[in-house]
Amino acid sequence: MAHRHSLSRSVRLLSLGLLAGPALAQTPLNLCMENADNVPWILMGAKPGYVQIMMGHVEKAVGFPIKVPPMAWKDCLAGVKAGSIDGAVSASHNKERAEYADYPVNLNGEVDATRRMYRTSYYFYKGKGKPLSWDGKTLKADGLLGAQQGFSVVAQLKELGAKVEDNTPTADEVLKRVSTGKYLAGVVQVNEGDTTLASDAALRDAIEKVQPALVEKPYYTMFSKAYTAKNASTARAVWNAILKVRNDAGFKAEVAALTKGSE
Q1: Model pTM?
Q2: 80-117: b or e for each residue (b if 16 or more CB lie within 10 Å)?
Q3: Which of 19, 62, 91, 146 is the most exposed place for a label (fewest CB within 10 A)?
Q4: For residue 123, what are the contacts with CB-CB under 8 A and spacing of at least 6?
Q5: Higher-confidence residue: 260 or 170?
Q6: Distance CA 14, CA 5 (A)
Q7: What pLDDT digit, counting tens, does each position of 96-105 carry?
């Protein structure tokens, strides 16, 4: 009789999600990430970027497999929206994505930036001498701007009244098009923009960074609503592990050469 009582109590606790342990995820967690360099966060070469290193630590912390294959960002987002992919890493929050994906939230129901993966800024990089001005509130740009395909800054630029083209997956191609005059300016992540200009004298002679930043954003692991409807405890475990890993002294030391204190 005591055995039956103990079993029924275990079943009840399991249904309430109170027996969460290493068995949170019985199958691998299938996430996706952008398949292009996003320096220093995602790197497609032999050496991993910040995000890849972080997710390796998160996998160890939660105790179940996490797969994060690279793919075109628009396809990654489409898979999350369709529920065919569990979630995506290195995703900023916006209203459109929040309709089909869940982010970590605090007790007030607001997106919880303490459980971000990292944060970074986006800047305008304009052709030298080109007529573009930005004071942090008002944009004056008489020409076509460029941004990466599927990136959330595109909607922000359109809200500012800009004409935007976003049909390339890489920041390098955006900047190349600025240098050739196809774009009046491009908007790219500051680490990528600064790194590219520092390493390419021709681009550096043709392009200048505009102050101040267009926006600073936190980036998260987001999960499809279809996934969290059945696996909310797993999503919470990942978000909590991200917070723990990001603040871990060993992890900070491991990625210090990549981030150079930018996070």
Answers
A1: 0.82
A2: bbeeebbbbbbbbbeeebeebbbbbeeeeeebbeebbb
A3: 19
A4: 187, 188, 190, 193, 209, 210, 211, 213, 214
A5: 170
A6: 14
A7: 999 999 999 9
